[in-house]
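Extended Data, record DNA-directed RNA polymerase III subunit RPC6
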Amino acid sequence: MASAGTSGGSVTELASRLYDACISKFSADHLFYQQDLLGLDIVPKSDLPLLLQCTQSLVDQKLFRLLQGKNDRLAWKIIPREDAEKLQNLSPDESLVYNVIHSTGRSGIWVRAIQSRTNLHKSILDRCLKSLEGKNYIKSVHNVKFPSRKMYMLAGLAPSEDVTGGAWFTDGVLDENFINVVSGFIEFSVSKKSWYEVPASDKARNKRIKTTDGSATVRSKDAAGQREYLPYPPGYKGYPTVAALTAAVNQSGITPVRLGEDSVTQLLEMLCYDNKLVALNNGEVYKSVKNPEQVKARQARKPDEDPSVVEDRLVRNGMTEVPCGQCPVFNLCVPGGAVSPENCEYFETWIHEKSPLSF
């Protein structure tokens, strides 16, 4: 005759109390071992056989999931009651598929991996997936890293950034326009913290420019609407951090979603790769290569603008402007020869028309 302590009713009652204690004292992700459960003082006299009866009762009710813990030790994990109710209504095959998908969390799992882990025939697996999806227990997701793979995850979970690609992807497609808008805002914000405006000196304001006819004209820098900037000196501590830039982007209203520091760091690395920003102190702060006026002018330029317009750094490079740098007979050109600087038909034109001298 079975003792009262091990009767079916007593085991069910103890199992319920054990489950409630686990829910109230531990997180949902906690992995329970025998000593953890005995330490709750629910099972009288730390009776291990009785504990195993209770855990088996909870496993049968789909309230506990049996797992293999560290060093191949027996372990259990709590299943929320709403999930347990779902599992109780599933067939054994559906329950097997659901548990495999559940174990992958927000990462999801490839349908072929499900088949490999469950050993189910493809037709049975397809039927289970269709049934679970129809009950809204699971959902198919698009993985930007593996666009051709069909992936599944629990319906109530949001995919991780590894799956969706993060803020820079919309419906699995890279949103280049959004990236350009946010990166442009970041570059301009960094530029304002990297350069300071100074009053133009009289000498700089009135600049004499030699024209093609040999006359000289005076151009006012203020009249041209230009501003003069200087970079901050060494030791300057005001360069923006990743946290400051992330806060500025989220407060700007240019993004419909709240960006994290990881997403902003990706853009900062891209801008450094494009030689628009420079990372300082191992990426703690950033400075801009160009001043705010230069950044604004470049961003205002339309993509279909005349491609002959080049940046200042190229204009100041003599070998890219002088005819010699692109002359097809450069190697034959020698003073006094058949091809020489003295009789070059392009050199004189370049001096007087293409690159007027200023003094």
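Summary. Residues 173-300 form one domain.
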